[in-house]
Each structure stands twice: as C-alpha cells, then as structure tokens.
Amino acid sequence: MDEKANGPKLANGARQVIDGPTNPMVTPLLTDLYQFTMAYAYWKAGKHEERAVFDLYFRKNPFGGEYTIFSGLEECIRLIANYRLTEEQIDFIRSSLPGTCEDSFFDYLRGVDCSELEVYAISEGTVVFPKVPLLIIVGPVAVVQLLETPLVNLVNFASLVTTNAARHRFVAGKSKMLLEFGLRRAQGPDGGMSASKYCYMGGFDATSNVAAGQKFGIPLRGTHSHAFVSSFTSPDEIIEKSLRHCDGSSTCEDFVGLVQACLNKLQWSPPLCGVFGETNQSELAAFTSYALAFPSSFLALVDTYDVMRSGIPNFCAVALALSELGYKAGGIRLDSGDLAYLSTEARKIFRIIEKEFNVPDFGKMTITASNDLNEETLDALNKQGHEVDAYGIGTYLVTCYAQAALGCVFKLVEINKQPRIKLSEDVTKVSIPCKKRCYRLYGKEGYPLVDIMTGENEPAPKVGERLLCRHPFSESKRAYVVPQKVEELLKCYWPGSSGNTREELPPLKVIRERCIQQLELMRRDHMRRLNPTPYKVSVSAKLYDFIHFLWLNEAPVGELQ
Predict the structure, then answer these.
(1) What architecture is the 33-166+403-554 domain classified under in CATH?
(2) DSSP state for residue 34 in the 8-state scheme
(3) 390: part of which helix (H) or strand (E)?
(4) DSSP H or E segment with residue 455
(5) Calculated CA dihedral for residues 229, 231, 236, 242, nearest 10 degrees
(6) Fewer Cβ atoms within 10 A, N terminus or C terminus of the chain?
(7) How many other C-beta atoms are found inside a 10 Å radius of the C-beta of residue 413?
(8) Could you say which DSSP state residue 530 is in?
(9) Quick one: pLDDT band at residue 425, thresholds 50, 70, 90?
(10) Around Cβ 472, how many Cβ atoms within 10 Å?
(11) Does the keyword Glycosyltransferase apply (predicted)?
(12) pLDDT per residue over 107-145, tens digit each?
C-alpha cells in the first residue's frame, strides 16, 4: 500500500491521503495479546479470511444520565488507513508468542492491512444510546479481531469525556463561557490532549492547553497563577512604568502612579467609602505589572490574599487606570471561597464604579470562577444565584471523576453470513445478532422518539407509515410509531473494496457544531440531571422474532434429574 496515498479510491481513481493517529503510540501493537493469539488460531484453522461482522457499542449511559455523545471516529479511521505491521513489530510478536507458532503466520502478518475492511459508523458528535452500534466493522475475521482493542480504546474515553463536557454545558447554560483547565490533572499527556480535544467537541469554548490549541485549532485562554501575584513584594519592583494610550496618541509615563491615584479615588468615593480600605501593595504591584504586559486583555486572579478587602479593590484600581488610557480590562478570576457570594458582591462594586466614574460597561466585567468545579457545584451555583460569566473546569472534567469508563464492547454478530449471538444470564449482556441498519425516528414536534434496529435487508421505515417498535428482550414493551422524519444513522466511512461511497471526515469545529445541534434536538427530560427519562431503543418486529429464535436455538436445554 502506498504510504502517502492510503485512503480509498476516489471517483477519478486517485487515492486520498489520511494522516496517521494523532498519538504516535497508536500502532498495531496497541492491542491485547489475545488478539494475536486468536489471529494465529484463526490462521491455523484456515478461518482467518472468513468474512465477519462486529458491532462496537456500549450497554449503559454514563454519569447516571440517559444520553452519550459518540466521539473518536476520526482517530479510528486514521488507524485503519495506516494499519501495517513493521518488521520490528512482527519480530516482537514472534518473540511474544509460543515458539511452536509457524513461520508462515508471520509472513501472513506482513501482508495484513485494512483494504478489505468496511466500516459503517454513526457520525461523530451524534447523541447515541445503549445497544445501538456506534461502528460496524466488516472484514476478514482475523484482521477485525486485531483492531478490536485499539478501536474500543479510541472510542471509550473520547465518548466519555465528550459526554462529560456536554453535561457540564447543559448545567451551565448556553450563555456561559466554559474553559477547560485540566491538563495538569489529566491522566498523562495523552489524557490531557484527548480531553482538550473532546471537551471542545462537547461544547467547551476554549482550553488552557497550548499543545491542543496548536494541534487542533482550539481557542486558548489563560491569565496568571497565585505564584505570579506572590512573587511581587512592592510596586518599587516595577522598572518600566510607562504605558502608551490605546489610540497611540500619548504615553502615560508613570502608570504605577496612575494606578495608585485611581485606588485613592476609589477609597474616597462616597459609595465605596468603608468598603475599600487598605489593600495588599504587593498584589497591587503584581496586577499593575500584568496590566503593563497585557493592557488589552487584563484579567486578574483576585483571591491570593483577600478577595473583597484587597483583590477586588486592587483590580478595580488597575482597571480604572487602564480605562483612562482607552483600554478595557477583561475581568477577574475567583479560585476559592463562596463563589456565589463573591461574584455577586464583585458585580455590585463593578456597577457602582461604572455609575460613579462614568466608565461604560465596567459593570459588565467578566467574572470567571474556577476551584474544582463539577456538575454539582454548577447546579448549586444556579440555585443560589450568582454573577459568574465563565467557568474554568479541570479535574472533575478531564478525569471523568464521576465515572471511570464508558464500557464499550466489541461483539461478533455474523460470520460467513451466519448470524451469531452472545448469551448471558444477565440480559443486558445479550448481543443483538446479524448485520443491522439503524434509524432514528422523529415525532411531530421535531424531537427524536426512538432508535430502531432492523435486519440489513429489511425495508427502511417510511415517513407517515405506522411501524411496530419492540424492546429487544422484553416481550411486553412495544409501541407503534408513525415517524414524521426518518434518519439513517450508520454511514460508510471506510468502503474497502465494496465500492460504496465514503463519507468525509469533517473538521473538529464542524463536529462541535453538530454535537451542539444534536443536543438541542433532544427533549429536555432526556437531558436533565435528576431522574432523566430513558430514551427508547428498539428493534423491528422481524428482528425481535429472529433474536429470540436464535436465542432458543443456541441456549442449551437443561435436564432435571
């Protein structure tokens, strides 16, 4: 296979170039050993080329909710497009398998690629539900088995963290800016990079992760830490004190003095007299120095010493001085304390200053809150009432603290056109056999009503035609649906040699927009944090009958003595 032109053939006969996975550690060796032992056993039995169909899906929505966002598809396709074992990798596999393995098997591995695979998937950024296949992989059974672990790995965390981000967005509301600040607390470099990418996809506005900004084009945000503030001891440390007016018309030669004068004005202002007293001068020096460096985007962390007695007064003095030179300060960040109370009090002071000193929009100054925020704290802030405009969220977001894993599975559902089923005493672990087609049915109000799976050769549901939808395993759970819109969920993202038209992989921003639009389509009761309404996933009457026929056919019959 040409390494540079590794994609499926285009209409003109040329091949598209698909880059390798973002993380260079995603190679054919990023798999479990038993995938190679099974591949050898398939090969030894002469079964390795048998055409198999596998479903990748999950069994339960995360975080106690009733929806999930599918993510990770692009990385899966990048892996598939570039899947080839090197000689070094083959030598390592040889050393890891028993010495009885035949040399011809390793010759077979040298020729393994994904040119005979077909991949059907739901579009990345789509709201999805348990049991519905996120990906359907069709191809030689040994090759598909080798892909199982990396595909599950690439989808699992991506979908989990995107869903976590979407849930935070839902609680925060559309109007708030959400900033992902989790790199330092993420599970290693890849955890940090993946979290930044998929949090942006799930509705966050920006990241502090510079590498993710460069790699994925995500907007960057960041100010300074407590260390910067505490590194100053006195305004005397500021050497370069001049600041040019915003329009370039003049220069203030002593911005430090201007800031001190503004602080005095605030302290003696009748509405603030008794509110603004003596402040920490080292903090004032830090804010002044930072404003000199970034006069057009000055945003200060105000809780190093005391928010109301020092941080807010010092910030307001610097912001007022900047306004006299034509600049508009960005706002403050609160990283500790009672965020509802502090944000409300800060907003009152900003509005007083706007009115008292006639500074336009001073009262609308951005207030950012951080400090180990999660869904629960956002919800609590909403109930208490607050004046926060933006949230910087890290640990609980990027680590998916509330749930460690999504629990994706990869199950064989057909081989050599023979449907297969995996049985279990736990009915939630019973797989749905055969190659399927999946549809989303919409009601009169425009909301999705139900997802339905059908056999590959069944006719598609039609708008306006009544259709019986059945729970896959519960006989009594069934309903007729008359869809007002029918959307087929699975599309071909890797046609192999099938000749099917391949869907293009959209850029990250387009996927993000899709995710936001998808969430807007869902009924609010499916989305709420407490006691959300389960979304219905069903099968056609024909597929229901076939599932239970195969179940009875495969389950051994017991004998009572």
Answers:
(1) Alpha-Beta Barrel (3.20)
(2) H
(3) strand 390-393
(4) strand 448-455
(5) -60
(6) C
(7) 20
(8) S
(9) confident
(10) 18
(11) yes
(12) 999 999 999 999 999 999 999 999 999 999 999 999 999
Token code pair at residue 354: 């706007």
Quick one: which of 297, 305, 306, 371 has its CA closest to 340?
371
State how far the alpha carbon of 1 is from the alpha carbons of 15, 81, 362, 404, in Å: 11, 10, 62, 38
- Asked whether the beta carbons of 540 and 470 are under 8 A apart, the reply is yes
Residue 366 backbone dihedrals phi, psi, to 5 degrees: -70, 130
The token pair at 98 is 């028993």
Alpha-carbon distance of 514 to 537, in angstroms, equals 21
* pLDDT tens for each residue of 161-215: 999 999 999 999 999 999 999 999 999 999 999 999 999 999 999 999 999 999 9
pLDDT at 6: 74
> What is the rounded CA–CA span in Å between residue 515 and residue 202?
7
Distance CA 219, CA 204 (A): 10
E strand residue ranges, 236-363:
243-244, 251-252, 299-301, 331-334
Q: Enter the DSSP assignment of 60.
A: S
Helix intervals (H) in 461-534: 508-521, 524-527
Sorted by where each begins, the domain ranges of the chain are: 33-166+403-554, 223-388
Beta bridge partners of 326: none
Q: How distant, in Å, are the alpha carbons of 3, 124, 388, 486, 504 from that of 17?
A: 8, 20, 45, 33, 12
Return d(Cα 83, Cα 560) in angstroms, integer: 52
Token digits for 69? 């966002």
Range 274-301 average pLDDT: 95
Q: Is the CB of residue 31 less than 8 Å from the CB of residue 144?
A: no
Q: Which amino acid is residue 168, in one-letter code?
A: H
255 touches 324 (CB < 8 A) = no
CA nearest 350: which of 395, 309, 319?
319
Q: Which run of H or E residues covers position 419?
A: strand 418-419
Phi, psi of 218 (to 5 degrees): -85, 135
Total length of the chain: 561
Q: Which two tokens stand for residue 524?
A: 């609010």
pLDDT tens-digit profile of 27-81? 999 999 999 999 999 999 999 999 999 999 999 999 999 999 999 999 999 999 9
Residue 101: DSSP 8-state: S
pLDDT tens for each residue of 70-107: 999 999 999 999 999 999 999 999 999 999 999 999 99
The yes-or-no verdict on residue 1 having pLDDT over 70 is: no
Letter string b/e over residues 171-206, b meaning 16 or more CB atoms within 10 A of that residue's CB: bbeeebbbbbbbbebbeeeebbbbbbbbbbbbbbbb
Report the first-to-last Cα separation within the chain, whole angstroms. Answer: 61
DSSP state of 469: E
